[in-house]
C-alpha cells in the first residue's frame, strides 16, 4: 500500500504523464467521435497494404538486428576481444544520427549506377531502392538499441552461473546457448519490443528509400494523409495512426507481462565483474568480423556523409570539387548558432525531464497496487510508437492555440518543443529504468525501512543512488536523439526556436543539400565528443 | 547522488523554461505570417517590412507548403488560428479554405492592375508570385542536341529510366504538375511516361539531386530549384518546353479568424509592391506585377507568358474538385 | 599419488600481488581445507585450480595431466578439467528445473538419456531431494538449493570436488546437517575435496589436513591436531583461538 506522500507523488506523476502523453492524442480522438465515417480509412486497401509492409519490414529488421546484435553484445561485453571499448562506443553511433540522414548516406553509397560503392566496383552490384535495402538500413539505424540493452544485461549477470556450467563440462558455445542466452530472454524481449516500436514509427528511412521503391509503409501513408489531406488531414492521419497505437499498446502489454513473469534476479549483492571469456584462436577472426561490422554499419555511412559535406556539386568526385564551401555557408548563417543553442538546450532539459519523470513512472509502475500502474506504463510508452508528424499535429490541436480561449498559447515556443521531445522519448526512459529497478533486490530497500527510514528516505538514499548509474545511460539515450529531431520540430517551431533538425531539413529540402550534410557532419562530431566525454567521466562499460 | 539533490538541480532550469518561454502573448499589434518561402527569402523581407511597418511586430513561420498547410489545418480544427496571413504555392489548398469560409476576402489596391486570372472571383485570395515547372537535365551526360525540348519529347524511349519528378503524395507542387499535365495532355501522357519508368518520389529538391548526381539525369521540377542549383555551379541546363511551362500560381490570403485584419491588410498590400516583388525575382520566381523582369538567368516573362499552360479561376476550381481523383489515379498508375 | 599439485603459483591482479608464491599438493581421497580470513586468497586458489582464473606464474597438475604451466604455455579450459565445484551462491540456473540443473553436466558429456535419468535419480536420493525434480530453484529453500548444487557437482563423479564456502549461507541446524552430508560423501566416494572456509570448526571437523592462509601465503599446513598442538606462529594461534 502506498503512504500519503507516495499517493501525492503518484497523482502528480499521473497528471504529468496524462498531460504530456495522453491529452494531445485525446484531443484529436474527441474530434473524431462525430466523424466515425473516417474510420473506414483503417480498412482501405492502400492502408492495409502499407500495414502489412510495415510489419514485414519490422520483423525482418528485428530478425537481422538480433542475429547481429546478440553475438556482438556478447563479444564486446564478455570476451577478451581486442578493442572492446572502441566497439562499445562506436557501434552505438547509428542510433544518434537522425535516421533520414542515414538513409541519405546509404543513397549516396548504394544507388544503382551512381552510388559510390557501385562506382568503385565498376559495376552495379547493389541497389538501395529495394525491400532488402530498406530492411538493412532500418537495422543499421536502430540495432544499437538491441546492443545497449543486451550488453547491460550481460554485464550485470551473475558470473558464477556461467562458471558453474563451464566446470560441469560445458564448452563456451554450449554455455552461451544453454545458460547465458536463456537468462537474458527478458532483456532481449524488452529490447526487441523497443526496436520494433521504433521501426513502426520511423519515417525518414522509408520516406527516402521506400517511396522511390514504391514501398509505402504506414508512416509515409500517414504523412500523405496529414499533410496532403486538406482540412481534414489531421483527422485522417490520426485515424490511420490508430493502427500504430494498437500495436504499441499490444506490444508493451505483452512486454510487461513477460517481464513480470520472467524477471529473474540476476544480480547478486556483490559487486563482481563477470569474468571475460577467452576466445583463444577465435580472437582474431572475431575481431575481424566486428571490424567488418563497424565498417559496414558505421564507417561507410558516416564516411559518405563526411565525403558529401566537402563536395561543391553533388556526385562529382573530382579533386577540384572538394572544399570547405559548405562549412563556410553554414557558419555564415546566423541561424546556425541559434539552432545549436536551441537543440542542445532542449535536449539537455528534455533528457533531464525524461530521467526524472521516467524514474517516477518506473517507480510507481513497479510498486503501486492494482491495475493503474500498468496503465501508467502503457500511457507513458504510447507516443513512442506514433509517428512524429501525428504527435506534432496533436500537440498543435491540444496546446497550440490555447484551446480556444486565445489566451496563453505556447505555439512555436521552446516549451511546446520540449513537451513534444519528452513525450516521444519517455518510453525509452521507462523501458530502461523498469528493468534496472527490477534487478535491485527488494531486500536492499527493506533493510532501509527496518533501520527506521521512511519510504521517501529509502528511495532518496538507497534506491535512487543504486539506479543512478543506469540513469546516466538513460539520459544519453533519451537526450541525444532530441538534438537532431526533425519530424516534429518542422511543424512546431517558431521564430527563434529553430533547431538543428529544422535547419538540416531546410538545407536538405532546398537551399543547399550538401550543406545539410555538412551540418549533419558537425552534429556527428559534436556528438562524438560528447560521447567520449561521458565515457571518460564514467570510465566504465555500458 | 540522492533523489532530493537531483530534484533540486532539476527544478531550477525547468522553472526557468516555463517562466521565460511559455507565453506567446502578442505584444501590441502582431501579425503572424505563415509562408512556404525559404529562410533566406524570409530574411530578405525582414528589413523592408520593419522599415515599412515599425509599429507592427511581424512574426513568421516558414516551411514547406505541406507543413504550412498541415499546421494551419490543425490550428483551424481547434476553431482558432495563430496565423493571420498565409502564402504558399498550393492553390488547391486556398480553394479548399475558401470553400470552408476560412478566408477573409480582400483585394489589394496594389493588385488591381493584374489580370483577372490572378484573382479569385470572390476576392478570397490573389496570386502573389509565380513559380513555374520546367524540364531540367544534366549537361555532363546529355548534350544539347540530344536534350528534350518539349513535354512530348519525354515520351520518347531514349529517356527510359532517366526521368524523375516529385511525388504528389509528398509535395504540393507535384500535384499541380500532374493536374496541369493531365489537363493538357490527358492520362495517355502519363501512361507513356510510365512505360519510360518515370520515378515519382520526394520533393523538388530530391529531383534536383537526382539530376545533379546523374541518378535520373532528366527531371520535371520547379524552375526556382533549378536556378538555385545552377547558381551553386551544378552542370545542369533548363529547358522551357515548347508547349509551355507549368504555372504554379501561389496565392496570398488573410485568414478570417485573424485578430489583426487591418494590419494584415497592410502587409498584404506590401507583398504586391515593387520591393516585395523584386525580392521574389531574386528568389528565382516570376512576379505577376513586374512582367518585364525575370529571375536571373531565366527567360523573360513575356516569352513564358505566350505558351504557359492555361489557367484561371474556373480551371483552378475544376482541378481542385478532381484533386483526389487525379491523385488516386496517378498513384494507381505510377506509384504501384 | 597426489591428485592436485600446485607448484610455485603466484598471482598478481593489476600490480597487486595477491599470492606471492605458493606450492600445495592434495592427495588422493584427501579432504583439505583452505582456512583463512577474507581476502587471504583462498577463493583465488580454487578458482585457479578450476581454471576460472590463471596464475601469473607456476604450474598446476591434476592427476596425471598438467592443466596449466606458465612456462610451457599450457592452459586447459575449465570444461576439460573434469572437476566438480560448489559455489558459495550455489549458482543454480534459474530457468532450469532441479533435474535439468543436475542433468546438464551429463548432457555435456553426451551420456545416454536413460543413463542420465538413472544417475540423476540416484544422486537425488543420495542428497535426499527425491520428489523435487521438477521444481525451479526459486521454489526451493536455501538448504535444498545447496543440496542441488552439491548433487550437480557430484553427478558426473569427478575426481576432485572444489567447495567455495558452501555452508556460509545456512543456519546453524542446516549447517550441521550439511556438514554431516559432506562427511558422508567423503566416506562414500573416492574423491579429493578442497574446501574453502573461514570457519575453523567446519575445517577441523571435516578435514584430513588444513592449510591456514594469510595474505596469499600458507602459514601452516597439517592435520587439525598438528595445528592445534604445534601452531607455527602467532597468526595460526590467534586464528585457531588456541
Question: What does this 3D model show about the protein?
Answer:
The complex is a heterotrimer of chains A (542), B (336) and C (242). With 542 residues, chain A is an all-alpha fold. Chain A folds into two domains: 270 residues, MetI-like fold (Orthogonal Bundle), CATH 1.10.3720; 228 residues, MetI-like fold, CATH 1.10.3720.10. Chain A is built from 24 helices and no strands. In chain A, helix 15 crosses helix 24. Chain B folds into two domains: 156 residues, Periplasmic binding protein-like II (D-Maltodextrin-Binding Protein, domain 2); 130 residues, 3-Layer(aba) Sandwich (D-Maltodextrin-Binding Protein, domain 2), CATH 3.40.190.10. Chain B contains 13 helices and twelve strands. In chain B, strands 1, 2, 3, 4, 5 and 12 form a six-stranded mixed sheet that branches. In chain B, strands 6, 7, 8, 9, 10 and 11 form a six-stranded mixed sheet that branches. In chain B, helix 2 links the parallel strand 1 and strand 2. In chain B, helix 4 crosses helix 12, helix 5 crosses helix 6 and helix 5 packs across helix 13. The longest helix of chain B is centred in the N-terminal third of the chain and has 19 residues. Chain C is an alpha/beta fold and 242 residues long. Chain C has a domain of 146 residues: Rossmann fold. In chain C, the strands form two sheets. In chain C, strands 7-8-9-3-10-11 form a six-stranded mixed sheet, sandwiched between helices. In chain C, a hairpin with a 4-residue loop joins strand 5 and strand 6. In chain C, helix 2 crosses helix 3 and helix 2 runs parallel beside helix 4. Chain C is globular and about 50 Å long. At the A-B interface, helix 12, helix 13, helix 16, helix 18 and helix 19 of A face helix 1, strand 2, helix 3, helix 4 and helix 7 of B.
CATH class of the largest domain in chain A: Mainly Alpha
Mean pLDDT of chain A: 82
The number of distinct helices of chain C, counting runs of at least 4 residues, comes to 8
CATH topology call of the largest domain in chain A: MetI-like fold
Our count of domains of chain A comes out at 2
Name the beta content range of chain A.
under 5%
The assigned CATH architecture of the largest domain in chain A is Orthogonal Bundle
Count the beta strands of chain C.
Answer: 11
- Average pLDDT, all residues of chain C: 88
Taking the alpha carbons of the first and last residues of chain C, their distance comes to: 33 Å
- The gyration radius over C-alpha positions of chain C equals 18 Å
Cα distance spanning the termini of chain A:
35 Å
Helix content of chain A: over 70%
Amino acid at each position: 500500500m502506498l503512504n500519503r506522500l507516495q499517493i501525492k507523488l503518484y497523482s502528480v506523476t499521473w497528471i504529468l504523464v496524462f498531460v504530456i502523453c495522453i491529452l494531445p492524442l485525446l484531443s484529436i480522438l474527441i474530434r473524431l467521435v462525430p466523424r466515425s465515417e473516417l474510420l473506414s480509412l483503417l480498412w482501405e486497401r492502400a492502408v492495409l497494404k502499407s500495414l502489412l509492409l510495415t510489419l514485414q519490414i519490422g520483423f525482418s529488421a528485428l530478425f537481422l538486428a538480433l542475429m547481429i546484435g546478440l553475438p556482438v553484445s556478447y563479444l564486446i561485453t564478455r570476451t577478451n576481444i581486442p578493442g572492446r571499448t572502441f566497439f562499445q562506443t562506436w557501434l552505438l553511433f547509428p542510433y544518434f544520427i537522425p535516421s533520414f540522414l542515414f538513409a541519405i548516406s546509404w543513397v549516396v553509397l548504394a544507388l544503382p549506377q551512381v552510388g559510390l560503392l557501385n562506382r568503385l566496383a565498376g559495376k552495379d552490384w547493389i541497389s538501395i531502392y529495394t525491400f532488402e535495402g530498406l530492411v538493412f538500413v532500418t537495422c543499421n539505424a536502430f540495432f544499437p538499441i538491441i546492443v545497449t540493452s543486451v550488453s547491460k544485461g550481460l554485464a550485470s549477470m551473475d558470473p558464477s552461473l556461467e562458471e558453474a556450467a563451464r566446470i560441469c563440462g560445458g564448452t563456451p558455445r554450449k554455455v552461451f546457448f544453454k545458460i547465458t542466452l536463456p537468462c537474458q530472454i527478458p532483456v532481449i524481449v524488452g529490447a526487441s519490443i523497443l526496436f520494433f516500436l521504433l521501426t513502426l514509427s520511423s519515417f525518414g528511412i522509408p520516406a527516402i528509400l521506400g517511396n522511390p521503391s514504391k514501398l509505402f509503409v504506414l508512416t509515409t501513408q500517414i504523412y500523405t494523409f496529414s499533410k496532403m489531406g486538406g482540412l481534414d488531414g489531421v483527422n485522417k492521419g490520426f485515424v490511420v495512426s490508430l493502427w500504430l497505437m494498437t500495436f504499441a499498446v499490444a506490444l508493451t502489454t505483452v512486454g510487461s507481462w513477460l517481464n513480470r513473469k520472467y524477471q529473474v534476479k540476476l544480480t547478486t549483492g556483490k559487486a563482481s565483474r563477470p569474468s571475460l571469456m577467452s576466445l583463444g584462436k577465435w580472437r582474431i577472426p572475431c575481431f575481424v568480423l566486428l571490424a567488418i561490422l563497424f565498417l559496414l554499419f558505421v564507417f561507410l555511412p558516416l564516411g559518405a556523409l563526411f565525403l558529401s559535406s566537402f563536395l561543391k556539386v553533388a556526385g562529382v568526385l573530382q579533386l577540384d570539387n572538394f572544399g570547405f564551401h559548405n562549412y563556410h555557408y553554414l557558419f555564415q548563417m546566423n541561424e546556425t548558432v541559434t539552432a545549436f543553442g536551441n537543440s542542445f538546450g532542449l535536449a539537455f532539459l528534455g533528457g533531464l525531464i525524461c530521467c526524472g519523470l521516467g524514474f517516477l513512472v518506473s517507480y510507481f509502475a513497479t510498486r503501486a497496487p492494482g491495475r493503474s500502474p500498468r496503465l501508467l506504463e502503457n500511457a507513458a510508452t504510447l507516443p513512442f510508437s506514433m509517428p512524429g508528424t501525428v504527435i506534432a499535429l496533436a500537440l498543435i490541436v491540444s496546446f497550440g492555440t490555447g484551446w480556444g480561449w486565445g489566451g496563453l498559447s505556447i505555439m512555436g515556443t521552446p516549451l511546446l518543443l520540449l513537451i513534444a521531445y519528452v513525450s516521444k522519448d519517455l518510453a525509452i526512459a521507462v523501458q530502461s529504468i523498469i528493468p534496472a529497478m527490477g534487478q535491485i533486490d527488494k531486500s536492499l530497500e527493506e533493510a532501509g525501512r527496518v533501520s527506521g527510514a521512511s519510504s521517501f528516505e529509502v528511495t532518496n538514499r538507497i534506491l535512487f543512488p543504486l539506479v543512478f548509474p543506469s540513469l546516466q545511460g538513460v539520459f544519453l539515450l533519451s537526450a541525444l536523439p532530441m538534438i537532431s529531431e526533425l519530424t516534429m520540430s518542422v511543424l512546431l517551431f517558431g521564430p527563434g526556436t529553430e533547431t538543428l533538425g529544422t535547419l538540416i531539413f531546410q538545407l536538405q529540402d532546398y537551399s543547399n543539400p550538401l550543406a545539410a550534410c555538412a551540418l549533419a557532419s558537425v552534429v556527428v562530431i559534436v556528438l562524438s565528443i560528447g560521447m567520449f566525454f561521458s565515457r571518460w567521466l564514467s570510465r566504465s562499460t555500458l | 547522488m540522492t533523489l532530493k539533490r537531483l530534484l533540486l538541480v532539476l527544478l531550477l532550469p525547468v522553472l526557468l523554461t516555463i517562466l521565460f518561454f511559455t507565453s506567446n502573448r502578442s505584444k501590441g499589434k502582431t501579425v503572424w505570417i505563415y509562408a512556404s518561402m525559404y529562410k533566406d527569402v524570409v530574411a530578405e523581407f525582414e528589413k523592408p517590412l520593419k522599415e515599412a511597418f515599425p509599429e507592427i511586430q511581424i512574426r513568421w513561420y516558414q516551411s514547406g507548403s505541406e507543413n504550412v498547410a498541415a499546421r494551419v489545418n490543425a490550428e483551424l480544427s481547434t476553431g482558432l488560428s495563430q496565423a493571420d496571413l498565409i502564402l504558399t504555392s498550393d492553390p488547391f489548398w486556398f480553394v479548399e479554405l475558401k470553400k470552408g469560409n476560412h478566408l477573409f476576402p480582400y483585394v489589394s489596391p496594389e493588385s488591381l492592375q493584374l489580370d483577372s486570372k490572378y484573382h479569385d472571383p470572390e476576392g478570397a485570395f490573389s496570386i502573389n508570385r509565380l513559380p513555374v515547372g520546367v524540364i531540367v537535365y544534366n549537361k555532363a551526360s546529355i548534350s544539347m542536341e540530344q536534350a528534350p525540348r518539349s513535354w512530348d519529347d519525354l515520351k520518347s524511349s531514349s529517356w527510359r529510366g532517366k526521368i524523375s519528378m516529385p511525388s504528389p503524395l509528398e509535395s504540393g507542387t507535384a500535384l499541380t504538375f500532374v493536374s496541369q499535365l493531365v489537363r493538357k495532355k490527358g492520362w495517355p501522357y502519363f501512361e507513356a511516361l510510365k512505360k519510360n519508368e518515370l520515378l515519382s518520389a520526394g520533393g523538388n529538391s530530391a529531383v534536383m539531386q537526382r539530376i545533379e548526381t546523374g541518378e535520373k539525369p532528366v527531371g520535371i521540377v520547379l524552375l526556382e530549384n533549378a536556378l538555385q542549383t545552377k547558381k551553386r555551379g551544378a552542370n545542369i541546363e533548363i529547358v522551357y518546353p515548347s508547349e509551355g511551362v507549368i504555372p504554379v500560381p501561389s496565392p496570398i490570403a488573410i485568414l478570417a479568424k485573424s485578430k489583426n485584419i487591418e494590419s494584415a491588410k497592410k502587409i498584404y498590400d506590401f507583398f504586391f509592391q515593387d520591393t516585395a516583388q523584386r525580392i521574389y525575382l531574386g528568389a528565382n520566381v516570376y512576379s505577376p506585377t513586374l512582367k518585364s523582369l525575370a529571375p536571373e538567368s531565366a527567360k523573360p516573362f513575356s516569352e513564358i507568358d505566350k505558351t504557359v499552360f492555361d489557367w484561371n479561376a474556373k480551371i483552378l476550381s475544376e482541378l481542385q474538385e478532381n484533386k483526389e481523383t487525379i491523385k488516386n489515379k496517378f498513384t494507381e498508375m505510377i506509384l504501384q | 599419488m597426489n591428485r592436485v599439485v600446485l607448484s610455485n603459483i603466484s598471482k598478481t591482479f593489476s600490480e597487486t600481488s595477491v599470492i606471492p608464491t605458493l606450492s600445495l599438493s592434495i592427495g588422493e581421497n584427501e579432504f583439505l581445507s583452505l582456512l583463512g580470513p577474507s581476502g587471504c586468497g583462498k577463493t583465488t586458489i580454487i578458482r585457479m585450480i578450476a581454471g576460472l582464473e590463471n596464475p601469473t606464474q607456476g604450474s598446476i597438475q591434476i592427476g596425471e595431466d598438467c592443466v596449466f604451466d606458465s612456462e610451457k604455455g599450457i592452459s586447459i579450459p575449465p570444461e576439460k578439467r573434469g572437476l566438480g565445484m560448489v559455489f558459495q551462491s550455489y549458482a543454480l540456473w534459474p530457468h532450469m528445473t532441479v533435474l535439468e540443473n543436475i542433468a546438464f553436466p551429463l548432457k555435456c558429456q553426451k551420456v545416454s538419456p536413460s543413463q542420465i535419468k538413472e544417475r540423476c535419480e540416484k544422486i537425488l536420493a543420495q542428497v535426499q531431494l527425491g520428489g523435487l525434480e521438477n521444481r525451479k530453484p526459486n521454489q526451493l529453500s536455501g538448504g535444498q538449493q545447496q543440496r542441488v548444487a552439491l548433487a550437480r557437482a557430484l553427478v558426473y563423479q569427478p575426481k576432485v570436488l572444489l567447495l567455495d564456502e558452501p555452508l556460509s549461507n545456512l543456519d546453524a541446524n542446516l549447517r550441521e546437517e550439511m556438514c554431516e552430508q559432506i562427511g558422508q560423501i567423503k566416506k562414500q566416494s573416492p574423491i579429493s575435496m578442497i574446501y574453502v572456509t573461514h570457519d575453523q570448526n567446519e575445517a577441523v571437523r571435516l578435514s584430513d589436513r588444513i592449510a591456514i592462509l594469510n595474505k596469499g601465503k600458507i602459514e601452516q599446513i597439517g592435520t587439525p591436531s598438528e595445528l592445534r598442538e604445534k601452531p607455527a606462529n602467532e597468526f595460526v594461534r590467534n586464528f585457531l583461538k588456541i
